[in-house]
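Hi there,

I know you've been waiting on this one. I reran it after we fixed the sequence typo, so this is the corrected version. Both the input and the resulting structure follow.
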Amino acid sequence: MPTANDVRKGMAIKYGGEVCVVLDTQHRTPGNLRAFVQATIRSIKTGKSSNVRFASTEPIETVPLSRRKLEYSYKDGTGYVFMDPDSYESITLMDDLVGDCKNYLTEGSICEVLFNDESPVQIESPSSVNLKVLESPEGVRGDTASNVQKPALLETGITVSVPLFIKEGEMIKVDTRTGQYMGRA
């Protein structure tokens, strides 16, 4: 049986009789105390998040998850609609499940969704995405100090800081973990 040291982000564990997804973990070793693992978990049933603390050698019961690649289709009033490219079955995911991933969803983009007993648990976007710049002010001539940035509104509605040479209509690569500009696409 795995211990708390083996718990990683994205795993499903049983905690308090419920299946929970691990959102974040930190291993801590305070000065003269025993090591522990601080984890942020979200209950699949209720959707509530909580911070829990485990002793580093405490046994943890893991729950198997299945991963499926789904293609984003569109957003409607009930949520975000994804399609399974193999079976053409459509699945609607709620706003709270999609979370910050919605800032990087474009029509036809592929995301990995974690399932527990055929119910979606968590969505994982690719590490980087290519997005189109809709609005970006012109850079000021002579403003060439090192690493000057300007805001750019992207097709998904988020604003990212980009270098002065990026123009409207260009495709740029954005890191989905940090939300920062990576380069031209």
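Quick highlight: The two ends are 45 Å apart (CA to CA).

Best,
R. S.
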